[in-house]
Amino acid sequence: MELIPLNTECSQLLAPIHGFLHCATPDEWLAEARKPEHLAALLVDHANCEMKAAMSAHSLVRRYCLPKDKRKLLPNLDFYKSLDALPEKGEVLGKQALIGDNKRVFDELAKNDLLVKMVRLIQEELHHFEQVLEIMAARGIPYATLSASRYASGLLAHVRTHEPAAIVDRLIVGAYIEARSCERFARLAPFLDEELARFYVSLLRSEARHYQDYLTLAREHAGQSIDDRVVFFGEKEAELIALPDPQFRFHSGVPAAA
C-alpha cells in the first residue's frame, strides 16, 4: 500500500498542536490501529467522537449562552444539520420574530463569542459524523454499539464544580480532545488506504483550529491566566494516552497487551 505523505500545509497545522500536547501518540497504539481487524472499531468510535463533540458544544451553548428559562428556545442537534453557514442569531433559536424579553436575549447572544464558535463547531462535527457513517456504509461496516473509552471521562473527572472554573475547565478539556484528534488523524493517515487517508487529512485541515477556539474561550471566561490549568490538564491527558489501556478506541492509551 502506498503511503500518503502529509504535505507542508498539514505540517504547519500540526506544529502548534504538537507544541500544545504533552506527548505524541505512542507507536504501540498506532501499530494496533493499523491492524485491519480494528478498522470497524476505529471508524465506529470515530463516528461516536464526532457526535459527542457536537453534543458537548451544544451543551455549552444551552448552559452558558441563555438563562435557564430561555434554554427551551434552542433547537436540538438535528436543526444544525440543515444549515449551510453560520446562521443569524434569530435562526439559531428557531424563531423568525421575537419581541420584548426575547429580543433582549438576542441582543446578548449577538455579543456571545461562545455561541458563534460553538455553532460553527457543531455544524462541522455533525457533517464529519455523517461522512464517517457514509464511509462505513460503503464498506459494509454497521454502526454498532461500542462502549466509550476512559479518555473523555478521565479528563472530565478533574473539572471543578464552581463557576467560572467549571466552564474554564470544560473548555480546556475540549481543547485537548480536539488537539489529540487532529494529532491522531495525522498519525494514522499515512497508514490507511487512499480514501481514508485523504479523508483524515481533510479532517485535520477542517478541525485544526478547534483546540485554539476552545482555549480562546477559556481565557475569555476566566478573566485571568489559565496557564496552570492548561498544564494540569495537559499532564492528565498525557497520562491517559501513555498508560496501558484495556480497550482499543480512537482516543485510547497504549494497548494493554503491548
Automatic annotation (TrEMBL):
InterPro entries: Ferritin-like, Ferritin-like_SF, tRNA-Hydrxlase_MiaE. It holds the Pfam family MiaE. Coiled coil: none annotated. It comes from the Bacteria. CDD domains: MiaE (cd07910). Transmembrane segments: none annotated. This is tRNA-(Ms[2]io[6]A)-hydroxylase. The lineage of its organism: Bacteria, Pseudomonadati, Pseudomonadota, Gammaproteobacteria, Aeromonadales.
